[in-house]
Queue: 2 jobs
Job 1
Amino acid sequence: MKIFVAGASGVIGRLLLPKLVQAGHDVIGMTRKEEQRQAIEQTGAKAVLADVFDREQMVSILAKIKPDVVIHQLTSLSQGSSAENARIRIEGTRNLVDAAKQAKVQKIIAQSISWAYEPGTTPATEETALDMFAPMPRNTTINGVVALEEYVKEIPVHVILRYGTLYGPATWYAKNGDTAIKVMNQEVKATDGVSSFVHVDDAANVALLALDWPTGTYNIVDDEPAKGVDWLPVYAQALGAPAPDIQSGAAQWERGASKHKVKNECGWVPEYPTWRIGFAKSLQ
């Protein structure tokens, strides 16, 4: 298949490209940075420089390429701005989807998140409502997710991947990542809030596997949602950091997510079934 990857130089995109090429696909990776061109081409993919906020440019590019599938891995996380990330989910996705529709693309696979659900006491399923009435600043993130998912559903076959918190190489949880530095400095407290994680390798593998999945929304998380008081000390130990301070309480939306649907309907089994294994291997 001819596959267009938007966000090809991102944390997931850079791992996904070689997997797609090795699977025999004709892959075109999009980035807005000239310095990423060589890295994309070294995977065996073709590189396209474009700005997703330039609607006419996106329409022109996809009309020329005419891909069979668009994979949307666009984020804006390097500066830690939820507003900028929401913008790319809203404006960027709108432009990408409009361009895909004009190019008559029949399938799209898109990156979303699994911590956008409304408050609750059990891991959220895909049927759980999103946290539409969240206060600011969380509402900025939720609005971005809602818009992204609504727009993506305009493509005839759409697979929405609600990823858990990413860890592994080039993520915030890598040895030199933002979270790792904060944990080393004991700036992160272990709370009762529940998180669901997914290793970045598993996240990339799922985007490849989703080429064969039917329309649907899927939580892409490991098998063990965990409270901060459980996972953070394990992460700190693997990192060689001091033990974190404990702080009781949690935000109501910190509930984790269930992977029951993707396991049953798509047969997905993560290579890293729990963060306990993943933290140790990623930080060796």
Job 2
Amino acid sequence: MIDLARDAQSHLPDKRQVAASFSRAAASYDGVAALQRTVGHQLLQCIPATASAQRWLDLGCGTGYFSRALAGRFTETQGIALDIAEGMLQHARPQGGAEQFIAGDAERLPLRAESCDLIFSSLALQWCESFSSVLAEAQRVLRPGGVLAFSSLCVGTLQELRDSWRAVDGFVHVNRFRHFSDYQALCAASGLQVVSLETRPEVLYYPDLRSLTHELKALGAHNLNAGRPNGLTGRARMRALVEAYEHERQAQGLPATYQVVYGVLQKRITP
């Protein structure tokens, strides 16, 4: 059973590490963010056509790609781009898209109550320690009738890489994520109306393992968990990992599966 009052995930990385890692990755991020683009565009399509967005928040905006997409979709509106990684904001600000670029935490939003009509967050909330706190902040910041549209990752993500490492040693080499059932329980208990909540797999293919690990590092999404091995990975272990992962090879290449959660929640209008 997940603790609905506080779903703190002790196995998630320290937020300072997350912020530092994504700040370092700001310059290389857009060049390797194919999955992030695909997922974000699918999330945009999930936003109800009737949704109002006089003031919207791009939560975990990264380089600002979807801040600019939101500005294009919701014209003559005010946009806020927020991220925990200052390096990402420095990259996003010159490109525009939002009126404000703010460094902040999704679990403690630096925004007034009932100040936004739409919160859009794509592939950022999996790094939050307490998803229930994220939902409570969304409930606080949204105006009545306002919408939270988010995508995140759940258990099963990078399972091929995880299984291959398990065949090599007992260390934590792959970032851990919540179960989809945890998302279901937390959303149901949030006080927000669940409009839709589902998980869809996205599979990317790579010519070799090095291409996958290079992309994860360029995204800032390489292993950040406690329990990861310190120092360089030995050559013998890397050879064993390559051999283990080769058992996953398909005609298209080496698969990397991402289990993506898509959710649309709405703040209830009280009489």
